[in-house]
Give the backbone structure.
Amino acid sequence: MKFFIDTADVGEIKKALALGLCDGVTTNPSLVAKTGRGFEDVLKEIVQLVPGPISAEVTATDYEGMLREGRHYAKFGEQVVIKVPLIVEGLRAVKTLTDEGTKVNVTLCFSPVQALLAAKAGATYISPFVGRLDDISQDGMAMVGDIVQIYRNYGFKTQVLVASVRHPVHVLEAAKLGADVATIPYSVIEQLAKHPLTDAGLKKFLADWEKVPKASK
Ligand code: E4P
């Protein structure tokens, strides 16, 4: 499973790259707003840092506007993937951009049938939002399982990119279901590395090491 980092914060991207845990990046308007920077500056910087896929989201909601923004962002680098919302106009834009050779990530997916439509439109990635479904007492990972099964049934090439990841169990379940990608906040990447028995074991090893006679010089 590929690890994308879900952030527009260049500092976090650099930290994930240093760990070898940044196969790509996903941004969205809310993540960009948190940086306090202009999106084009941020995107230019990310393109310099990350060779893997970088999702840049359109904010237009009409077909022509999505195409205009998508074609513009696509010029920033060949690894730029255009992120389009899962609405009817968005599906039209997916088909056109895909036909033009631009990769598209269809975002704000909350049901397996929405994911089926995105695949039929030719999306490169589908982003099911698991955390936001869990937030309203629906089972986000069950949706991912259904999408994986449907895509396998028909051999769709669209990659399942698990989004709205909130904690390590989402990552575990995504991997068990065979999702292609999980896009993960940097804080969750650090949480994945942690285990209390690792910390306790390390503490004991270091304490015992103090009792070992040291070679005299
Ligand atoms: C990723 O593509 C999404 O924009 C992101 O994962 C949404 O996460 P959130 O539901 O935690 O805002």
The first strand starts at residue 2 and ends at 6.
